[in-house]
Amino acid sequence: MNPYRDALAWISQNPDAASAIGLAKLILSLANRSPFSLGECLATLSGPQVRLAMRVANHYAERGDDNELQAVSTEVCSLHPRLVVLGEIMTEAGRREDWLHRPAGEVHLQFGKKPGDKQ
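Request: output the structure for the sequence above.
Response:
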């Protein structure tokens, strides 16, 4: 089986496991659907799942983006829609260059709110 499909099988069988979330983040990142770092993807993995993640990464390094990765990432999106939303929020936050230049005290956790906005 293809490593993307192997990862999808693990994610499908263990949807709430931390390792499944890490593998889902890896698939979404490689498919350019979410900006999770490699460190974040691997942080919750151990043993066999680390080896699986390395197989996924090696497959991607050798072949790049392909139809199988896109098909698996679509299935991962349906299994973990919150990761997709989180990725979109992260992407939007990265586009807001002004956040990078603000003092730390001015950065607000409520996405899209400005100082003085009413709740």
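Helices lie at 3-13, 18-30, 38-42, 48-63, 67-79, 81-95, 97-100.
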